[in-house]
Amino acid sequence: MKFIRTSLITLSTLAISAQSVFADAVCKLNGKEVPCGDLPGWFVAIPFVMIVLALLFFVFWLWMLIDCVRYQKENVALWVLLIVLVNPIGAIIYYFAAKKKRKVS
User: Fold this and answer.
1) Which of 5, 19, 32, 83 could staple 90 via S-S, CB 3.0–4.6 A?
2) Distance, CA of 80 to CA of 66 (rounded, Å)
3) Strand (E) positions, 1-105?
4) By C-alpha distance, which of 52, 44, 94, 38 is closest to 69?
5) SS3 of 62, please?
6) What is the C-alpha to C-alpha distance for residues 57 and 83, in angstroms, rounded to an integer?
7) Domain around 21
8) Residue 64 half-sphere exposure toward CB, CA atoms < 13 A
9) Residue 85 lies in a domain
10) Tens-of-pLDDT digits for all 105 residues of the chain?
11) Exposed, middle or buried: residue 24 (CB in 10 Å: 0-12, 13-18, 19+)?
């Protein structure tokens, strides 16, 4: 938990620093040069949000892959192939089809 908190603090600090750097730069928006300070604040945050989402998907994918290998009793190879080849969608399918079913039983 401390790692996540430290990472979020670091990312927010980088976002704030990036805004001050962009204030003096010139950016292209719709083919026109505009001062980067005129761009909306959320525009700078988009890459950071995408990085956080990618990390969350990776952690979920890895969690489902490990769960499949450790606890799945039937069709392990099929589930592993699905999770590995279809990535986050395969992990979500595994979560709702196998892991939830196992919890109910």
Assistant:
1) 83
2) 9
3) 26-29, 32-35
4) 94
5) helix
6) 12
7) 1-39
8) 26
9) yes
10) 566 667 666 766 666 665 555 555 667 778 887 776 655 666 667 888 888 899 999 999 999 999 999 998 888 999 999 999 998 899 999 999 887 777 665
11) exposed
Say if residue 64 is in the same domain as residue 100. Answer: yes
**Would 99 be classed as within a structural domain?**
yes
Beta bridge partners of 29: 32
Distant-in-sequence, close-in-space partners of 90: CB < 8 Å, separation ≥ 6: 82, 83, 84
* Residues 27, 34 contacting (CB under 8 angstroms): yes
**Residue 81 CB neighbour total at 10 angstroms:** 12
Tell me how many degrees the CA angle 4-81-52 measures, rounded to the nearest 5.
20
Residues 6+ apart with CB under 8 A from 51: 11
Side-chain-side CA neighbours of 15 within 13 Å: the count stands at 19
